[in-house]
């Protein structure tokens, strides 16, 4: 499996699991399990972005990758500390980053997903 495939599949899995976490009753075992798997897929998606071809260097989107890799453990820490409002805010903001990255990866001409969707 190529790094691009790892990145795409882990991103899609993370997005689907994030949606499930949002609709599950909060604080339940199912919410926590789905959240743990979502964070794992999310972290894999972020980390795998460093292996994608970017004309031989890092791009501005990698700043979002670094931010994601900082925010995910922070959001988990907040939940474990019982700071649920901070946990919710952190995870929702980071999910917004995933959605934003996905949109930009799809609508910018020259990107791989642009060619898949509009090509």
Walkthrough of the structure:
With 119 residues, this protein is mostly helical. Helix content is 77%, strand content 0%. The chain is built from five helices and no strands. It is elongated, with a radius of gyration of 15 Å. The two termini are 23 Å apart. The model has no long low-confidence stretch (mean pLDDT 90). The chain crosses the membrane at residues 6-25, 37-55, 61-79, 91-114. Keywords: Membrane, Transmembrane, Transmembrane helix. It comes from Roseococcus suduntuyensis.
Helix content: over 70%
- End-to-end separation in angstroms reads 23 Å
Overall pLDDT level: 90
Which regions contain 5 or more consecutive residues with pLDDT less than 50?
Answer: none
Q: Which sheet architecture does the biggest sheet show?
A: none
**Shape type:** elongated
SSE ordering = HHHHH
Number of DSSP-assigned strands: 0
Number of discrete helical segments: 5
Q: What Rg, in angstroms, do the CA atoms define?
A: 15 Å
Strand content: under 5%
Structural class: mainly alpha
The number of distinct structural domains comes to: 1
Brief synopsis:
This protein has 119 residues and is an all-alpha fold. It is built from five helices and no strands.
Topology of this structure?
Blueprint: H1 3-23, H2 29-48, H3 61-80, H4 84-107, H5 112-118
Helix pairs in contact: 1-2, 2-3, 3-4
Structure keywords:
119 residues, mainly alpha, 5 helices, transmembrane, Putative membrane protein
């Amino acid at each position: 499996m190529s790094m691009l495939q790892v990145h795409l599949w882990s991103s899609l899995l993370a997005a689907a699991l994030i949606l499930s976490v949002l609709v599950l009753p909060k604080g339940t075992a199912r919410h926590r399990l789905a959240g743990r798997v979502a964070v794992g897929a999310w972290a894999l998606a972020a980390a795998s972005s460093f292996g994608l071809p970017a004309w031989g260097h890092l791009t501005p989107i990698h700043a979002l990758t670094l931010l994601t890799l900082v925010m995910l453990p922070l959001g988990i820490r907040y939940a474990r500390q019982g700071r649920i409002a901070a946990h919710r805010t952190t995870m929702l903001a980071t999910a917004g980053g995933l959605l934003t990255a996905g949109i930009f990866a799809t609508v910018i001409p020259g990107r791989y997903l642009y060619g898949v969707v509009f090509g």
